[in-house]
Design goal:
- The chain is an all-alpha fold and 330 residues long.
- 68% of the residues lie in helices and 0% in strands.
Length: 330
Amino acid sequence: MRHIITSRYYCKKITPGSRYVKPLTGVKEFLVQKCFAFVQGYEKILETKFPQAFKIYQVFSVGTKTLYSDIKEYIRISSSLSEGKSVRDLHRKELEVYFQVPKDLKKVAPVLLLAALPFANYVILPVIYLFPRQTLSSHFWSLQQKLDFAITYQRKKLYNYRPVFRHLQAQVNNIKDINLKENCQALFYKLGSGVHPTTDEIVSLKPLFVNKPYGIFSMSRKHLHSLCRMHRISALPGLQWRLWKHAGFIREMDLAISREGFDDMTLHDLKHACFLRGLCSVGLTREEMISFLSHWIYIAENTESASLSLLLHCPIFLSYNAPSNWVLIH
């Protein structure tokens, strides 16, 4: 109960529309600015001090420029939010950049910093060639690598679908409301028999995802850890808040898609959106991807800050039995 009250207080204190997508402040702002300046001058440093290494590095020049552009956009968006711009005024692409850049910097910044040290290039660059998925962001990957790595990440997430589903099933008997309990059992029976529930059936269970038994601040530790692995979130202290913020950020992107529609989304955009929301999009048509995203967005539009746990479980409700997912692990 203490955690629930704390979460409500937290939601109340922050300006509506900016609870999950906030401008940079303090140390984080300083570090991003430093990374921006470093990436800006990185090619010049290598060309001057390490001409041989620079020949190898030229392979990554396009990626560096794209990363530089995204960091610049990230800083611009943060400044706009600091000046009072509403999150709901941001476009889908802006939200995607703001969501992804911090993750990319955590991966790429150490590599770029080490590569600038004397003689380090002779070690770092071969490592980059051998392990591009672990050491570089998508800015440096080829189209084939982007697809291969997306499948790899999706396969890792899928191994946590069944544990999350088992945690959901284990709490059914703790549901006190008879109608909700019966609806929940019927929904889980559908999933277990290879059928996905309708969006209205999913939304009808929303009260169960506010407090007990499935609220973010009410779930067991094991359930939370499985959710973190399913969404590729590190299970460090404060994971409940990071899950809550992750779901809120995804919801803001969902609402942006709802505002702008699917017409301006390329096949790459649709595939990326599906992978992010737990569906392997390999082999799917444009219509199939739009159908999945439409169902997801309908649920997102019917959730609030208190019921974001429902959105965290949507990969189970909407894609647990998807053939494109099952083929990756069976």
